[in-house]
Amino acid sequence: MHSIAILGGTFDPIHFGHLRPALELTQQGFDEVRLMPCHVPAHREAPDCSAEQRLAMVELAVRNEPALTVDVRELEREGDTFTVDTLLEMRQELGEEVSLNLIMGMDSFVGLHRWHCWEQLIDLANIIVTERPGQMLPTEGVMARFLKARQVSSSEQLQQASSGRVLVQQLALLDISATRIRALIKAGQSARFLLPETVWDYIEQHRLYRS
Q1: What whole-number distance in Å separates Cα of residue 20 and Cα of residue 76?
Q2: pLDDT under 70 in the chain at which residues?
Q3: Where are the domains of the chain?
Q4: Which of 18, 60, 168, 171 sits 20 to 30 Å CA-CA off 28?
């Protein structure tokens, strides 16, 4: 079964904390890992940079890594971005014989029940929950029950299913955040070595994130 992992986000800007976990998934046998910049995120403040600028940075970041691709569908959608709409669209395109795998952090997973049409997500895709050392899985409540009913223990089990399964996995989650990068730049400091050199050059050239 062909397997696709999806990493969405504002990527404002994209950095090594996004890229390294995505690359590790390709090394676990996923056929594709797609980076999917969102247009207007429904659950957070609007990005600092335009959609065009964020897309340009993502494309620069993966230009020399064929294992990672960019999916622009959410940038082309008008209005708020809802993950369920994206997965529905992808299912209609790809059919049921493809393993779709949505990547999210532990903090997002714990609050998943507050997402728009959240219960439909697991009918459309598997979920990969990226776990940081010290983070705790929910032990009670709706998300604990959700996890208990669907959790598997390996990437192979995800890749064998088109949807319906959850894998909690520790990837190389680097202690880098876009918030920190923007703060450094606004303070007149360098963010070099936190993100690809091509992305840093683009930020410098276009004077992004400055006060």
Answers
A1: 26
A2: 40-45, 133
A3: 2-175
A4: 60
